[in-house]
Structures are given as structure tokens and as C-alpha cells.
Amino acid sequence: MLAASEVAREHEHLIRRSAERARYQMTPEEEDLAARLRPSGAGGWSKLHGNVSSQLRGEFRGESLPVTALRALATDPDEGVRRDAYEAELKVWEGAEVVLAAALNGVKGEEGTLAARRGFPDAVAPSLLTHGIDRETLEAMQGAVVRSFPDFRRYFAAKARALGKPKLDWWDLFAPVGRSQTEWTYEAGTRFVEEQFRSYSDKLGDYAARAFTESWIDAGPRDGKRGGAFCMGWQGDESRILMNHDPSLDSVSTLAHELGHGYHNLLKAPRTPLQRETPMTLAETASIFCETIIQNAALEQATGEERLYVLETQLLGHAQVVVDIHSRFLFERAVFEGRAQRDLTPQEINDLMTWAQRETYGDALASTHPYMWAVKPHYYSLSFYNYPYTFGLLFGLGLYAQYQAAKERGEAADFQRSYDELLSGTGLADARTLAAGFGIDLHAPDFWEGSLNVIREQIAAYEAALA
Ligand SMILES: [Zn+2]
């Protein structure tokens, strides 16, 4: 087929992926039945989780608040507020645990049964196909991740000292440390982003300028607008971005992140729609890279309390993506194993969540959050919608480290050319092949260690800034 058709050859990667997926299929009748039962099975359970959890409210100091507002208090500078909000939040989840546990059992029961009937060796296997990496890559990455936990525990210990406590509690994970002297208004953010993107390349700087002058970005929060941030491809090489700016470096980082997605869309624009399909593991490369440009520039300019603030912004995010996400992976895998035997009770699910948090945070925390399985919508949709974030962060950081090395050798332009080619080709080959173009072996621990070393340096700087 590939020899006979030019169009087929242009879509070779996609065809090979489809052929690989086709090896894991039930009979056509069984696939048909499974698809028809989806809305009343896992699809229905997932919807129930969304609908129930979005209505939940809790009591905070005599006031009724949506559970999302309770969770947002985790960033309050006052520990009493954070602790009371955490306790109120746990009560809310406890009140809904029977319904939410039924939803989790429903989703994981169906996914696990289908994976086994389709001939996958375990519940992780289908996610590897979806996310476009092989098991050796996942294991090399996770091995390096686990080896970094002692370093992250040093960060948690340092943060506890900064907050004047012997040990961090769960409600302190998002507590602010340091102070920003810069007023990160949206306008200041756009100027900073354009300037720093331009210090990387004119092409990236011009891209940001174009997004600003052509008003591609819906920037501020307003009534009736949803939260969060995302970027979507629009016509031609254009993109549109939704975000909710608040005056913080974190928000400016988000702006850079979403523009990174847009830049990726720009480079994929000449490809056919099928050639643009990018697995989630590679979809976050450009966004993390752009975020790193901004955060490193902010760090270079910062002194004193501001420096601490920038480092805290970086490390708080990295701890989520490296440590917390690994707890979510361990938990999800254990739920699949347990659910294969029978329905799990809310208490059993809580115990698995607590176990997974202890395995990853270790003794760095004095308390855990047994109901995180009720909080995160990811457990109720695509399986293992977690480790691709870690891959994205570490792959983006690793490429950034390569860029810095190339710049020192006076070869920045060569790097930029290869990097643009990689982004343009994220639908043309798998991650391992694309990485090999940079001399990177995703099966070797070295690459992952290199990315984690970037974070280790930030942890050391954070400790030094607090000393
Ligand atoms: Zn993103």
C-alpha cells in the first residue's frame, strides 16, 4: 500500500499507528456494542462526576462556598484560612463519596474490561498507544522521576522553613513564598513576553507581536467567562487563546505557554490535517519551552524576595508535574488492579490515594489529601491522562538545556532550525524518532536526568535564597 500511493507515503506514520491500534480490537459486533453502550456506561459515569462535583458547596467560616472557591483558598497567605478551607473541602467530598466512588468504579471497570478483551497486557498499555510513547520510554522517565524525589523533599522542607513550620502540610503546597516587586499587569506581561521571545529568535518575537496586534487573545476574566487557559488552532496559521490574567508571574507564564501552542500551530500549518495530529506527550513541548524562556528571564532579573517568588513559582509547578502526577499514576494503576477484582469502597479508594501520596511525597508532608481522586476530572475520562504532562515538562526542559548548550557553542541558529523542524513534524514520527534527531535517546536515563538536573539547580537556588 505504501509503495503504491504517494498520499499513503506522506501519511506513513499515521497509517502505521492505525495498523498498530487495529491489532487491539474486539470483533466488529463487540466494538459496535461497546460503542453504543458508552453513553450509558463510562460516558455517563464521567458526566455524573462532572455534574455532581460542579454543584458541590461547603461551609467556610459560616459562609457557603462552591468547592472550587474552597480549593482556591489554598493560595491564601494566611495559614488559618488555608487549613480551614482544606478541612471544609474534605467534608464536602466525604458527603459525596458514595456517588463519586460509583462513578470511578464505573469508568475504571469499563476501561479495564475493554482493555483486557482487546488483548492489551495491562491497563497502562492502551494509554501508551494513545500518548505515542513506548513502555521503555515511560519506564526510563519514571525511573529518573523517582530518583528525583529526595531532591523535591528538600524543596518541601525548605518551603516549610520559609513558612516557619517543622513540616509542610497538604494545605501549604500552594502557599505563597517570596514577594513580587514587579507589577505583572497584562500589558507589562505582553511587553516582557515579546522582548524575551525576541531574545530567543526574531521569528518567535514576531509571532508574539502578531498575536497581540491582531487581537488573538481573550485575556481578562469577566462575568460568564469560563476559567482556565487554552489555545486552539484557527484558520490558516492563526490561533486563538483564552486565558484569565491575574497580575502574577504565573499568569505571564501562562501567556507564554499558550503562545507556545500557537507557535506550534504556526509550524504545523503547512501540513495536511492528518499530519498535524499530535499525541499529548508532544503537544506540550513548545508551550513548556516558551514558559521556560520567560521564567528563566524573570529569574535572571530578580533579586531578594522577588528571586524567591520566581523560584517558588517554578518549583511549585514542577512539584505538581513531577511528584504529584506520579502519585496520580500509581493511584490510577492500583485502582485498575483493584477494580478488576470487584467494586472498591470509598474507604478503599481513599486508602489507595493516601498510599500513592506517601510513596511520592514521602515523609515531607505531615498530612495528605485522601479525596484527590474526587477532585481531578482526569480520572473520569481518558486513562492515564497524567504522565504525558511529566513527559511534556521534562522533554521541554531537556530541549531547552540543549538550546543553551548550542548557544554557548555559537550554534543557536542550528538548534532553532532543528527545533522548528521537530515541532512541524510532531504528527510525522513518534517521540523517540524525533528526539533521535537531536541525538537524544529517550530510553536512556541520561536525558531524563539532565532535565531533572535543571530542576535540581532551581531547588539548590531556592535553598540558597532562603539561607
Ligand atoms: Zn498546554
TrEMBL record:
- Name the GO terms of the biological process aspect: proteolysis
Say yes or no: keyword Zinc present.
Answer: yes
- Which co-factor is required? Zn(2+)
| Domain of life from the UniProt record | Bacteria
Entry keyword Zinc: yes
Name a Pfam family for this protein: Peptidase_M3
The cofactor binding remark recorded in the entry reads: Binds 1 zinc ion.
**Which GO molecular function entries does the Swiss-Prot or TrEMBL record give?**
metal ion binding; metallocarboxypeptidase activity; metalloendopeptidase activity
Tell me the keywords, alphabetical order: Hydrolase, Metal-binding, Metalloprotease, Protease, Zinc
The record places domain Peptidase M3A/M3B catalytic at: 73-452
Q: Which family does it belong to?
A: Belongs to the peptidase M3 family.
Which PANTHER family does this chain map to? CARBOXYPEPTIDASE 1, METAL-DEPENDENT CARBOXYPEPTIDASE
Q: What is this protein called?
A: M3 family oligoendopeptidase
Q: Which organism is it from?
A: Deinococcus terrestris
